[in-house]
Amino acid sequence: MYDVEEIRAQFPILSRRIGKAPLVYLDNGASAQKPQVVIDAITRGYAEEYSNVHRGLHTLSTISTERYEGTRDVVRKFLNAASQEEIILNTGTTEGINMVAYGWAMPRMEPGDEIVLSIMEHHANIVPWHFLRERQGVVIKWVDVDANGDLDPQAVIDAIGPKTKLVAVTHMSNVLGTVVDVKAICAGAREKGVPVLVDGSQAAVHQPVDVADIGCDFYAITGHKLYGPSGAGAIYVRRERMEEMRPFMGGGDMIDQVTREAVTYNVAPMKFEAGTPSIVSTIGMGVALDWMMDLGMETIAAHERRLRDHAIERFKGLNWLNIQGQSESKGAIFSLTLEGGAHAHDISTVLDKKGIAVRAGTHCAMPLMQHMGLGATCRASFGLYNTEEEVDRLVEALELCHELFA
């Protein structure tokens, strides 16, 4: 049985108040709160066990290295990768995608070569490809969503042409909540010999992810959305693609030998991890992923589906409320606008006075917002600790916004 109150008790911040109101944290799409077990791991990492990792022979370095490298295997399990050697640890999805852009795509792309993107992509999965457009003449091909906010996998596959070198697509929209059938996209792209990068920043938080089943070549995640610390993340890279990549950054740890004349690199994945890493944050991410897996990803997904369905039912009574994206394959993420033109920032400010934390703006997805003809939305994104009562509080606060701005 999913005991949400027991889960909430593990998050110290959820007991605080914002002004006179209890906190309702609905900004999980931007960054999630941290359970006590993660906070304890971070405190222990700095207070009792801290040292730099790898090569150190003393006790603290050995402990830190074991815990840090242990996270690599936790990520492997979390994503069901075949081997730890297919997991690169980094600072998050943004670094992971840039690593693919610089380390894999840049050396093999010529002017006129194409990258296929969906219009739903986060800027982290757009801007690195614009770099290649600006610097190497790469062409970006866009695939739009339909009126419901769905992305047709066949439309993505059909966009693949003889000059397409990569498909880069989100697994779950951070604006619309749409869950994309990335497995179908990967299967179609594989038939055409084109690798697929999946941005898993949102999807990995809300549902089980199996990269072996999906069949992708790259899958990026970020720790701070996964109830872990900021500054830690990982990317799965299929072994064949790993062998094709060149190092993204140079420095310590990623080398084998350095002389005046030459440098030889460490074995993968180490050759893609230059310098002192975010040690304690990475350890904390591993603890967070273990904690989530102990809860059960299917169990988490079922709880969030209940929240989603309850929110949809409650929103039906608000005929002045617009929900952007009506996909049947949708997570518990809602981008909202009000009839009458109330700005998302004003809505967010009123909600904050009621203790409700949401996000307002373009959500690092400007092409999608332009496609929808919107300047901004107010986004409520739910997590594993949210409740149906908090949905009700959101509705009450939105009703107040309607009274104020109608």
Write up what this structure looks like.
It is built from 15 helices and 17 strands. The two termini are 42 Å apart. A hairpin with a 2-residue loop joins β1 (17-18) and β2. It has helices at 4-8, 36-47, 59-79, 93-105, 127-136, 153-158, 182-191, 203-206, 211-214, 239-244, 279-295, 297-315, 344-353, 366-372, 388-405; strands spanning 17-18, 21-22, 24-25, 87-90, 114-118, 139-143, 164-170, 196-199, 218-222, 233-237, 255-258, 263-265, 321-324, 333-338, 356-357, 359-361, 377-381. The protein has a 7-stranded mixed sheet with strand order 4-10-9-8-7-5-6, sandwiched between helices. The chain has a 4-stranded antiparallel sheet with strand order 13-14-17-16, covered by helices on one side. It has 2 domains: 4-28 and 296-405, Aspartate Aminotransferase, domain 1; 39-294, 3-Layer(aba) Sandwich (Aspartate Aminotransferase, domain 2). The longest helix is centred in the N-terminal third of the chain and has 21 residues, at 59-79. α12 packs parallel to α15. The protein has 406 residues and is of the alpha/beta class.
CATH homologous superfamily caption of the largest domain: Type I PLP-dependent aspartate aminotransferase-like (Major domain)
- Give me the CATH fold name of the largest domain: Aspartate Aminotransferase, domain 2
The major pleated sheet works out as: 7 strands, mixed
Assembly context of the chains: single chain
Number of helices: 15
CATH class of the largest domain: Alpha Beta
Portion of residues in beta strands equals: 15-25%
Main structural class: alpha/beta
Which word captures the global form?
Answer: globular
What is the share of helical residues?
Answer: 25-40%
Strands of the largest sheet, in order across it?
4-10-9-8-7-5-6
- Contiguous low-pLDDT stretches (5 residues minimum) are none
CATH architecture of the largest domain: 3-Layer(aba) Sandwich
Mean pLDDT: 97
Distance linking N and C termini: 42 Å
Number of strands: 17
The radius of gyration computed from the alpha-carbon positions, rounded to a whole number of angstroms, is: 22 Å
Protein name: Cysteine desulfurase
Organism: Limimaricola cinnabarinus
Function: Catalyzes the removal of elemental sulfur and selenium atoms from L-cysteine, L-cystine, L-selenocysteine, and L-selenocystine to produce L-alanine.
GO molecular function: cysteine desulfurase activity; pyridoxal phosphate binding
